[in-house]
Amino acid sequence: MDYEVDKGWYNPRITPYQPITLDPASMIFHYGQSVFEGLKAYRTEDDEILLFRPDKNMERMNRSNDRLSIPAIDEEQVLDYLIELIDLERDWVPNSEGTSLYIRPFIIATERNLRVAPAHSYKFLIILSPVGSYYPEGIHPVGIYVEDEFTRAVRGGTGTAKTGGNYSASYNAQEKASGNGQSQVLWLDALEKKYIEEVGSMNVFFKINGEVITPALSGSILEGITRMSIIEMLKDWGHTVVERKISIDEVFAAYDKGELEEVFGTGTAAVISPVGELQWKEKTIIINNRETGDLAKKLYNNITGIQTGKLADPYGWTIKVKEK
Ligand code: PMP
């Protein structure tokens, strides 16, 4: 659908996947005014299609819109459009273990103008693609590189929004991580380069001496939907979950004391990603013998179980895409 100042959002339509034409002076090419979301549809054993908390993606998209001066969407209406589209494309939702249909809603500023100010016209698109299993050989830990030079986001910046620039700004660090043999970047706060923020495209949790700790929403990290679900689930299971500032020194000190039990990331792509290795400056620590911890495994099984309809959903997190 499109947006014009005098019309609001208008002309929602479903068209075959195809290239779009934009004027070279479209504002998106110059000042990065864009937001996006990412969610998945899963096929159950009974051939139902389930979405996991899509209302939260809509809410977050409007928070991102607000930060990027993009006009708000009608969350309920857009969710209805999204469900209609998935229903139409339900044959594309794969059915083997770990697979899903990835859904990417996004908004770009299309006004033809080089003025540095919010655009007056936008396009909202949703594209879909089947995706394979993140763990074709079963869940396994990844290595993480602690970035101490570059910064992903500053408080008051755009770090809490899902906008393209946050990701392109992280490529340098990602390349450093790969050069060091690690697959992901762990970001520290911009001011002191001390407090842990998040991993590439995941939030992060630490189990230290029986307590689960995750960085508090600092005003510069993305509020992950998996993160909020994990916190609720852990509390439901009787775990203590603390959202607070946690420094990288504290994590390494806990390791030295033998108290660092598990580290894992959470996000839509991998759901739970256990961390087996953490590299910070010249020091590399091996966590839980590079094996997936019991808590990470239990969370993974329960969340993916709910997402794919294998387990009951006591939280009401899943939405069925009804067949028309
Ligand atoms: N942080 C960042 C920077 C991300 O891109 C993502 C992925 N959306 C996450 C955290 C995890 O968020 P979610 O659980 O909603 O996928």
From TrEMBL:
A Pfam family cross-referenced in the UniProt record is: Aminotran_4
Keyword hit for GTP-binding: no
Cite a single GO MF annotation: branched-chain-amino-acid transaminase activity
Which pathway does UniProt place it in?
Amino-acid biosynthesis; L-valine biosynthesis; L-valine from pyruvate: step 4/4; Amino-acid biosynthesis; L-leucine biosynthesis; L-leucine from 3-methyl-2-oxobutanoate: step 4/4; Amino-acid biosynthesis; L-isoleucine biosynthesis; L-isoleucine from 2-oxobutanoate: step 4/4
- Name the keywords, alphabetized: Amino-acid biosynthesis, Aminotransferase, Branched-chain amino acid biosynthesis, Pyridoxal phosphate, Transferase
| Keyword field contains RNA-binding | no
- Listed name of the protein: Branched-chain-amino-acid aminotransferase
Organism expressing this protein natively: Evansella vedderi
